[in-house]
From TrEMBL:
The gene is purA. It comes from Streptomyces niphimycinicus. This is Adenylosuccinate synthetase. IMP binds at residues 13-16, 38-41, 128, 142, 223, 238, 302. It is found in: Cytoplasm. Pathway: Purine metabolism; AMP biosynthesis via de novo pathway; AMP from IMP: step 1/2. It catalyses: IMP + L-aspartate + GTP = N(6)-(1,2-dicarboxyethyl)-AMP + GDP + phosphate + 2 H(+). The active site is at residues 13, 41, 139. Mg(2+) binds at residues 13, 40. GTP binds at residues 12-18, 40-42, 304, 330-332, 412-414. CDD domains: AdSS. GO terms for molecular function: adenylosuccinate synthase activity. Its EC number is 6.3.4.4. Transmembrane segments: none annotated. Plays an important role in the de novo pathway of purine nucleotide biosynthesis. Catalyzes the first committed step in the biosynthesis of AMP from IMP.
């Protein structure tokens, strides 16, 4: 089983960090293929808790080589501070590899992210303010700066000039902001060259060779399917492709090499930032999910919006990612509800709809149609097998599996590595 993709099946924060870390001990490479430090992955190892943003979660597994692929946008200041934070805690970060083709997030991207959100006013996306959208926009617009540019001062200067000549006009004339000095940006970026030089590699060549030799490569998505710029709830999305195809373009590995695609699926639903969310709960049940589930953002500290499980979304994730398995997380959070509603379809303009509508306005109007399942009150955090779960928890999992279109191969019953029920092996 040489190549697997692990990705979020909802709007992010499904527990990808924990799932990746769990597999990290058995894989040779963990590769981030998109996104940047907008991601916030929490990994709990024993009594230690780690919050990772840009680094692949495999960095915590000693035998595993973490890779930042070409599809990622890298803020070098954040990268270095995350590395030194882990070094201080005794984590070996020396194996990290970074694609020379990955694009950089520079200070002007972060500035533009913040001012453009302010400019949108009520229509804002609610971004993480980390410069993600502007950095990807430059990449597509062919005025981006790549990691490899750090090692050639003359090219770097030309590229920063080309980008800032235009952006400074926008900053001054549209946003009424001071222009950003080209020299200052070039100098700051050049300062990252030496600390990063040793990590840069031809990651595409390396990963393809590794797969051909039968080594196990795990591609770790940031964000989730519904935040995908093509398949998500556009425009309330991130600016990259967390869906399975993104692993191919974002790491330079062909689709024929990928054997398994695992969707991380929370037993209920959360979302951070603006945009439609049919099963959102604005009542005490939503507050209870937020409190028990600890649903507060790892990156921005914002409260996550919470709602019941939505099977329409899970089915959609199965379809657009070609999911082979689900990893259902946070089942323990649902302990204590007498009855648990599950959204099985939507009502849109009086009609029952089973599949996620492609039309934005239809999705905005979608009202959830619920089926209600009986809850359980027993503590499930110690359960190690499916049979040890209370009957109603088993029924909840089986119902979700039937509705979602792919087998649930693992169940999270707590944040720790060992708080997992493994039903089918992923490897
Ligand atoms: P990610 O962005 O997908 O990696 O997810 P986050 O780390 O942002 O959010 C998931 C949160 O749930 C983290 O605090 C995890 O430690 C925690 N978590 C993951 N799996 C489980 C689980 O099965 N049960 C509980 N109670 N917490 C979990
Ligand atoms: P992980 O990897 C949840 C959301 C933001 C915003 C939208 C666009 O922890 O699952 P961006 O800064 O990317 O341009 O913001 O995407 N968002 C996330 N929501 N989890 C994440 O990452 C997210 N990364 C971005 O809140 O709505
Ligand atoms: Mg997160």
């Amino acid at each position: 089983m040489p190549a697997l993709v692990l990705l979020g099946a909802q709007w992010g924060d499904e527990g990808k960090g924990k799932a990746t870390d769990l597999l990290g001990g058995s894989v040779d490479y963990v590769v981030r293929y998109q996104g940047g430090n907008n991601a916030g992955h929490t990994v709990v190892v024993g009594d230690q808790k780690y919050a990772l943003h840009l680094l692949p979660s495999g960095i915590l597994s000693p035998g595993c080589t973490p890779v930042i692929g070409n599809g990622v946008v890298v803020d070098p200041a954040v990268l270095l501070s995350e590395l030194s934070g882990l070094d201080e805690r005794g984590v070996d970060t020396s194996k990290l590899l970074i694609s020379g083709n990955a694009h950089l997030i520079t200070p002007y991207h972060t500035t533009l992210d913040k001012v453009s959100e302010r400019f949108l006013g009520k229509r804002k996306i609610g971004t993480t303010g980390r410069g993600i959208g502007p950095a990807y926009a430059d990449k597509i617009n062919r005025v981006g700066i790549r990691v490899q540019d750090l090692f050639d001062e003359s090219i770097l200067r030309q590229k920063v000039e080309a980008a800032l000549d235009y952006k400074n006009q926008v900053l001054a004339k549209l946003y009424n902001r001071r222009a950003i000095a080209i020299d200052q940006v070039v100098e700051e970026l050049l300062g990252y060259a030496d600390p990063l030089r040793g990590y840069v590699a031809d990651t595409t060549l390396l990963l393809n060779n590794a797969i051909d030799q039968g080594q196990v490569v795990l591609f770790e998505g940031g964000q989730g399917t519904l935040l995908d710029v093509d398949h998500g709830t556009y425009p309330f999305v991130t600016s990259s492709n967390p869906t399975a195809g993104g692993a191919c373009t974002g790491a330079g590995v062909g689709p024929t090499k990928i054997n398994r695609v695992i969707g991380i699926l929370k037993a209920y639903t959360t979302r951070v930032g603006a945009g439609p969310f049919p099963t959102e709960l604005l009542d005490e049940d939503g507050e209870k999910l937020r409190t028990i589930g600890g649903e507060r953002g790892v990156t921005t500290g914002r409260d996550r919006r919470c709602g019941w499980f939505d099977a329409v979304i899970a089915r959609y994730a199965t379809r657009v990612n070609g999911l082979t398995d689900f990893f259902l997380t946070k089942l323990d959070v649902l302990t204590g509800w007498e009855r648990i509603p599950v959204c099985v379809a939507y009502e849109i303009d009086g009609k029952r709809v089973e599949e996620l509508p492609y039309s934005q306005s239809d999705f905005h109007h979608a009202k959830p149609i619920y089926e209600t399942l009986p809850g359980w009150s027993e503590d499930i955090t110690q359960a190690k097998t499916f049979d040890e779960l209370p009957k109603n928890a088993q029924r909840y999992v089986q119902t979700l599996e039937e509705m979602s279109g792919a087998p649930i191969s693992a169940i999270g019953v707590g944040p720790g590595r060992d708080e997992t029920i493994q039903i089918n092996s992923f490897l």
